[in-house]
Amino acid sequence: MAASGEIPQAWVDKVKELLGGEIFTKEQPGKWEGKAGGHVPVVSKNDDGTVTVKVPHVMKKGEKDEDDHWIEYVFVQDAEGNIVAMNKFTPTDAAAAISFQPEAGKTLTPFGYCNLHGMWKGEQF
């Protein structure tokens, strides 16, 4: 998992490009009605003050690359649009989750990107 100073610029550039497209939410799943449960990022606060953002989606490596289905990115954005935590995943990873220490007093928004069902936004925290 990459903290804000360690996130590869190529990752940041890619998700900023993806954020320019349609963004789905639990309340507005668009053409993906019924898919929110496995795609909307879930935030949990840990006893040590860190936060975990997880997208409860199956990570599936298919027999052929076009059969792969996974969460490619999980990231957190602050109110100014800066990405403060992020990781890129592969279909063979066990789960799509990141944990990090949030800066006090910041409003943050979690996102997850599915290779088949696009960009999903969770609730601010």
Automatic annotation (TrEMBL):
Q: Name one Pfam family in it.
A: Desulfoferrodox
Query: Keywords on this record?
Result: Electron transport, Iron, Metal-binding, Transport
SUPFAM superfamilies, per the entry = Superoxide reductase-like
**Family annotation (InterPro entries):** Desulfoferrodoxin_Fe-bd_dom, Desulfoferrodoxin_Fe-bd_dom_sf, Desulfoferrodoxin_SOR
Q: Where is the Desulfoferrodoxin ferrous iron-binding domain?
A: 35-122
> What GO MF terms are annotated?
iron ion binding; oxidoreductase activity
PANTHER family named among the record's database cross-references: SUPEROXIDE REDUCTASE-RELATED
The record's family statement is: Belongs to the desulfoferrodoxin family.
Indicate what this protein is called per its UniProt record. Answer: Desulfoferrodoxin ferrous iron-binding domain-containing protein
